[in-house]
Design a protein that fits this description.
Keywords: Signal. It comes from Candidatus Francisella endociliophora. The chain has 159 residues and is an alpha+beta fold. It has one domain. Helices cover 17% and strands 37% of the residues. The chain has a 5-stranded mixed β-sheet. A hairpin with an 8-residue loop joins strand 2 and strand 3. The longest helix has 18 residues. The chain is elongated, with a radius of gyration of 20 Å. The N and C termini lie far apart (76 Å).
């Protein structure tokens, strides 16, 4: 009897704590769209983005209250040491960014997404290791849900 009296208040407390939290959702992985890279007509550049309408509450930088997106590159040493460049949706070069619409992002007209998140440009890189690859972790909150995904961008050296 004492155990059941203890469990009920703990259960109610857990529900109360969870009510103020946002929900985690890893469905972002399936919504990422890539452009360019090996095997495409744009082998020296690769980019990743999403379609804004696929994520409830997501807003591009040209809208009120744009979604803050955290983009973290890793596994970059070989690509950067040989002349590749990391591309961000804005000039922050790391951390929290706002996305760019494809009409305002560099080289993104005709992209399979309308919200540019990150890219890898290796047009001036030495052709020593092809393709060059970097890992990108993307995370943000939109519509009360936390989204997170990791992907790999690949691009060939062009110099």
């Amino acid at each position: 009897m004492k155990l059941s009296k203890l469990i009920l208040p703990i259960s109610l407390l857990s529900v109360a704590i969870l009510a103020g939290c946002t929900e985690d959702n890893n469905d972002l992985q399936g919504k990422l769209k890539k452009e360019g890279g090996p095997g495409t007509s744009t082998v020296t550049r690769s980019a990743v983005g999403i379609n804004q309408e696929d994520i409830s509450g997501f807003r591009n930088s040209d809208q009120d209250n744009p979604t803050q997106v955290t983009v973290t590159f890793s596994n970059t040493t070989v690509a950067l040491n040989n002349g590749c460049e990391l591309e961000f949706a804005d000039s922050s070069q790391s951390g929290s960014i706002t996305t760019k619409t494809t009409s305002s992002a560099p080289d993104e007209s005709g992209a399979p997404f309308n919200s540019f998140l990150a890219g890898l440009q290796c047009g001036d890189a030495e052709i020593l290791e092809n393709p060059y690859t970097v890992d990108v972790k993307i995370s943000f909150s939109a519509g009360g849900t936390n989204y997170s995904a990791t992907t790999t961008l690949s691009a060939e050296g062009g110099a």
